[in-house]
Write a structure and sequence with these properties.
The chain is an alpha/beta fold. The protein has 2 domains: 7-250 and 450-469, 3-Layer(aba) Sandwich (Aldehyde Dehydrogenase, Chain A, domain 1); 254-439, Aldehyde Dehydrogenase, Chain A, domain 2. The protein has 15 helices and 20 strands. The strands form 5 sheets. The chain has a 7-stranded mixed beta sheet with strand order 12-13-14-11-10-16-17, with helices on both faces. It has a 6-stranded mixed beta sheet with strand order 7-6-5-8-9-19, sandwiched between helices.
């Protein structure tokens, strides 16, 4: 079942260990492999080795680090098919989406290989004769990361690439549901020339144990986390004892807004990619739809026609466009939200059938009110609840009525409205007439309780650098 061309990518499955973790295919519920886990003492040994490796790595030039990162990128793309197959087997998304994620994940290696050479300092005009002032940027030290299961490759490279480019060591913990593709990507990093002690991924059945080690160890200087707001709060509190720098990409509740002057076909196309990609399991996917009264019925009809074309099934099968959700617990939570909305007065306009296994029927709900539970909670599934609105002011109030502020989307052809709404939405990212906004060249991150810090873009490198001020005194002319 795990037959792939590059056998070295499976080396992580044959590591000798007294303990192991079983990996299950969500599409079939079959166990597809076992991987070694690390104890707390072993993780501490990995941190000690990374500390030594980082002292050497930070002395390399940005160009030397860039060469290795570019080689890592090339190896990922050469093994794109194998990596995608591993991802689909353990995560469930359709093979085409997995291949797209491999390319997306690899793009961060190129971007930060280039950005590493641009970690510029500054000279500052002196206020006192006989002094010269300057700043330089240096690697923060050992960086750690805890990543989710929904994008098991891209979330690793989006954090590891800037860390390594900046001159840091990197230790990551992939999600227990999806470690195989992450470990395979790490194997390619070693083949590219990244020292093993410098880049390590650790696995333990207790995510909280790993989190505590990462947060409390005094040699670790940075923690990056992508996951729920609840866990993010815990990690931030634990990091406070050692005053670590943190990056937090947390929960979302993205509004998808269609005004009366929108291009409806464009809006529907954006809704499809934003809502139903990865079975709705993305932190930036549209979670709640607000459609103007005058185009509500027309939008619902067009969206229904497109959703009807989706095919649910095993991501390895040809023609499948929606794979399973990650497990039956996730499925049960999604179905709970659907049923709760119906009990509160919503109408199932399409889908809503309870499927076997870990599959969720792509669903559209109409007659939804803003105060329903399904609007207030993150669905993380292929369900589109649709609310009516009649005025811009009413819309802005509803859209901002959440503790979250990660991504938002709206469609309009009115340039005055576009500027007003873009500025009024309390979100770190706004898609304007666009439903797919993630790219390595733009800063990714939220506001409010959706997190702190940025990933990607030039800001992503700064998360792993510290600025040092240099004051040269006693200078004589």
């Amino acid at each position: 079942m795990l037959s792939i061309k590059n056998k070295t990518l499976l080396s992580c499955l044959i590591v000798q260990s007294n303990t192991s973790l079983s990996i299950t295919n969500p599409a079939t519920a079959a166990v597809i492999g076992h991987i070694a886990t690390q104890s707390k003492s072993e993780i501490n040994s990995i941190i000690a080795a990374a500390d030594i490796a980082q002292q050497q790595w930070k002395k390399t030039t940005a160009k030397e680090r860039a060469v290795i990162l570019l080689r890592w990128h090339d190896l990922m793309m050469e093994n794109q098919d194998d990596l995608a197959r591993l991802m689909t087997l353990e995560q469930g998304k359709p093979l085409a989406e997995s291949k797209g994620e491999v390319a997306y994940g690899a793009s961060f290696l190129v971007w930060f290989a280039e950005e590493a050479k641009r970690a510029y300092g500054e000279t500052i005009p002196t206020p006192v004769a006989g002094r010269r002032l300057a700043t330089i940027k240096q690697p923060i030290g050992i960086a750690t990361a805890i990543t989710p299961w929904n994008f098991p490759i891209a979330m690793i490279t989006r954090k590891a690439a800037p860390a390594l480019a900046a001159g840091c060591a990197f230790i990551g913990k992939p999600a227990n549901q999806t470690p195989l593709s992450a470990l395979a990507v790490a194997e390619l990093a070693y083949q590219a020339g990244v020292p093993k002690a410098l880049l390590q991924l650790v696995v333990n059945e207790s995510s909280s144990l790993v989190g505590e080690v990462f947060c409390e160890h005094d040699r670790i200087k940075k923690l990056s986390f992508t996951g729920s707001t609840r866990v993010g709060r815990i990690l931030m509190a634990q990091c406070a004892e050692t005053i670590k720098r943190t990056s937090m990409e947390l929960g979302g509740n993205a509004p998808f807004i269609v005004f009366e002057d929108a291009d409806l076909d464009l809006a529907v196309a954006g809704a499809m990619v934003s809502k139903y990609r990865n079975a709705g399991q993305t932190c930036v996917c549209a979670n709640r739809f607000y459609i103007h009264d005058s185009v509500y019925d027309q939008f619902v009809a067009k969206l229904t026609a497109e959703v009807a074309k989706l095919r649910v099934g095993n991501g390895l099968e040809d023609g499948v466009t929606v794979g399973p959700v990650i497990d039956e617990n996730a499925k049960n939570n999604i179905n709970r939200l659907i049923q709760g909305a119906v009990d509160q007065g919503a109408t199932v306009a399409f889908g809503g059938q309870v499927l076997s296994g870990a599959y969720v029927d792509p669903t559209i709900l109409t007659d939804v009110r803003h105060d329903m539970d399904i609007i207030q909670e993150e669905i993380f599934g292929p369900v589109a609840p649709i609310v009516r609105f009649s005025s811009d002011e009413e819309l802005i109030t509803m859209a901002n009525d959440t503790i979250y502020g990660l991504a938002s989307y709206f469609y309009s052809q009115n340039i005055n409205r576009i500027w007003y709404v873009a500025e009024a939405l309390e979100y770190g990212m706004v898609g304007i007439n666009e439903g797919l906004i993630s790219t390595e060249v733009a800063p990714f991150g939220g506001v409010k309780q959706s997190g702190i810090g940025k990933e990607g873009a030039k800001e992503g490198l700064d998360e792993y650098l510290v600025q040092k001020y240099l004051c040269f005194g006693g200078l004589k002319h």
